[in-house]
Amino acid sequence: MPRSHFSPASYAGATSPGKHVALSRRRSSAKIRVPLATSRCHVTATLLDGKAVAKEIRDELGARVTNVLQRLGRPPALAIVLVGDDPASEVYVRNKLKTAEDAGMGVNLDRLPSSTPLSAVLGVVDRLNKDPKYDGILVQSPLPKSLGADAEQRVFDMIDPGKDVDGFSPVSAGRVSQNREGFAPCTPAGVIELLVRTKTPIEGKHAVVIGRSDIVGKPMAALLLHKNATVTICHSRTRDLPAMARTADILVAAIGRPAFVTPDFVKPGAVVVDVGINSVTKAEEAKRIFAGYPDRLQVFEKKGSVLVGDVHPDVAKTAGALTPVPGGVGPLTIAMLMANTVRAAELRLR
Ligand code: NDP
Known about the structure:
Layout: H1 17-25, E1 31-32, E2 46-48, H2 50-72, E3 77-83, H3 87-102, E4 106-112, H4 118-130, E5 136-139, H5 151-158, H6 170-177, H7 186-197, E6 206-210, H8 217-226, E7 230-234, H9 241-245, E8 250-253, E9 271-274, E10 278-280, H10 283-289, H11 294-303, E11 306-308, E12 321-322, H12 329-349
Parallel strand pairs: 2-12, 3-4, 3-5, 6-7, 6-8, 8-9, 9-12
Antiparallel strand pairs: 1-2, 10-11
Helix pairs in contact: 2-12, 3-12, 4-5, 7-8, 7-12
This protein binds NADPH dihydro-nicotinamide-adenine-dinucleotide phosphate (NDP).
């Protein structure tokens, strides 16, 4: 199978079974057998190192950025719109700006106060759609509640599908669903890159995705399906969720609840992908989740908060492979945003 088939530009393709097996025997630097947390308990899971894979993806973009620069007279460029002052969004946007700059890409931030009416936000998107200086547009989610319950949907509806590098527009969702060329949402696209680049077999496996959001759960299920997994989607109304999850060879947790997936959800040896990013700020909760993980408790004591995924750290004793939090899916999301922006620029050159 050509290497390019695995590139971020072509996450939707199915794999060739014979060659996939051959590749899976090779060792990947991003798949390392190391403890996931300092613990007295026995850890069996292999670490799926999202940081390393994200770096690999970013490194590969270098030559493509230069190519666009030579042919277009400017590097691939991303326009970010940030409305309001949500502290988590500030951090995410700062990371995106820095990553784009480090990659030699163009990037611009339009900052709007939370009092901005929706019509004005839509006006900014309309201007960016028409501006040939930008290949990609990202409106940071969540938008302030004051803009109305359907604000995000209306903004995502407005983004030119050719610039929709976040993959949130209905056109992008349709293309992902139909396995056609387009932009998949960065988080699920990053998970697929992680699995493929760590030579984790997907074809024929039973994948269970917990979560059915438009930006993570549903596209995650579609992308796994396109890789020939048999996919089950679970949500808050699923009956006997642990039993359902235990049938998974690949379990993806995208729930938004700290340490929700405990070892009883996990078939021994399963691959567990933890999409969740939750900040725990209560001491009792931190102590409950990280009992036996003194290094994580030290982080809490030092900072007053500690990050935890949707998967309990004890799952490392049951799973065959697991993504850490932090350092798992998070870095991949930003790398895929860069990859989508470079591809948006390349598509203009066709
Ligand atoms: P949403 O809140 O939009 O969706 C959460 C999903 O989880 C829903 O489908 C919901 O079900 C389901 N769910 C909630 N509670 C339960 C439960 N008790 N049992 C079973 N299912 C449940 O979240 P997102 O999809 O946007 O994000 C999910 C997580 O991923 C969050 O932790 C978020 O921070 C993280 N995230 C991480 C990113 C990264 O870069 N690593 C990027 C994006 C998100 P129902 O539909 O029935 O309500």
